[in-house]
Amino acid sequence: MVSGKYSALSGAVAREQSMANIAANLANVNTAGYKKANVSFESLLHGAKQTKEAQGINYSRIKGNFTEFSPGPMVETGNPLDMAIHGDGFFKVQGPNGVLYTRRGDFVLDQNGNLQTSNGMAVLDGSNGPINIPNATISQISISSLGEISTMGRDGSRSVVGSIGVVTINDTSKLKREADTTFSLQADGQETIATEPTLVIGNLETSNVNMTEEMTMMINSLRTFETYHKVLKSYSDLGQKQDELGSLA
């Protein structure tokens, strides 16, 4: 009976972790560039071990966390510093401990003309250098679909001042989720500079989370969790009955 109790407990813990993951997705349904987080389950016993040694009782747990990198819908903002990547690719930004990757493109200029993310990380060019746009207002800045940044003078002259770094990742499973919408690249991952990226200027890529789908998954996980809880209560009641019978003997 104890084995069955722990089997139900492992299932309840796994479902609770799943609900926490779903809650995080729902909290970011309106976050630009957010990528949906998923979990996978696994059984700890297989084949003969389950059917013979464990007498059909099994244990479950979260096997792993992975990210769904499918593109989210684009929305037009009209802001010349907002940009979305059409197709594969990531922007490069300077994190506190190294280069990070993101699909979130709501960039801003600080008071010194440095191009930054909305939470203050420097946007990088293809050589991992920061991008500075000196002595220019937003109305004077023009960004091409290839990421080339130009400023327009009052006399109509045009000067190229930098370029947005866009890269592709050979294996997105090597990306580790970090703060906000950023990812770090594991040592065995590889980036490739996108020589001809396609940026949609004045647009933002929204979250790829489907609220209806997440709500359905949450309801299913909650009902499964409640089922495991009922099983645990049944085992608890049986244990009390056993103690009572033992005391009478």
Model description:
The chain is α+β, with helices and mostly antiparallel strands and 249 residues long. The chain has two domains: 2-69 and 209-248, no CATH class; 74-205, no CATH class. The chain is 28% helix and 28% strand. The protein contains three helices and 17 strands. The protein has helices at residues 2-27, 48-53, 211-248; strands spanning 37-43, 60-67, 74-76, 83-85, 90-95, 98-102, 108-109, 115-116, 141-143, 148-152, 158-163, 166-169, 175-177, 182-185, 191-193, 199-201, 203-205. A hairpin with a 5-residue loop joins strand 7 (108-109) and strand 8 (115-116). Helix 1 packs antiparallel against helix 3 (211-248). The protein is elongated, with a radius of gyration of 26 Å. The chain starts with a helix and ends with a helix.
Descriptive keywords:
6-stranded antiparallel beta sheet; alpha+beta; elongated; 28% strand; 249 residues; 3-stranded antiparallel beta sheet
Please specify the SSE layout and strand pairing.
Elements: H1 2-27, E1 37-43, H2 48-53, E2 60-67, E3 74-76, E4 83-85, E5 90-95, E6 98-102, E7 108-109, E8 115-116, E9 141-143, E10 148-152, E11 158-163, E12 166-169, E13 175-177, E14 182-185, E15 191-193, E16 199-201, E17 203-205, H3 211-248
Antiparallel strand pairs: 1-2, 3-17, 4-16, 5-6, 5-12, 6-14, 7-8, 9-10, 10-11, 12-15, 13-14
Helix pairs in contact: 1-3
Number of domains: 2
Number of helical segments? 3
SSE order: HEHEEEEEEEEEEEEEEEEH
Gap between N and C termini: 20 Å
Query: What fraction of the residues are assigned to beta strands by DSSP?
Result: 25-35%
Mean pLDDT: 83
| Largest beta sheet: strand ordering | 13-14-6-5-12-15
Please state the structural category.
Answer: alpha+beta
* Low confidence ranges: 47-56
Q: How many E strands?
A: 17
Helix content: 25-40%
Biggest pleated-sheet summary: 6 strands, antiparallel
Q: From the alpha-carbon coordinates, what is the Rg to the nearest angstrom? A: 26 Å
* Principal-axis shape: elongated
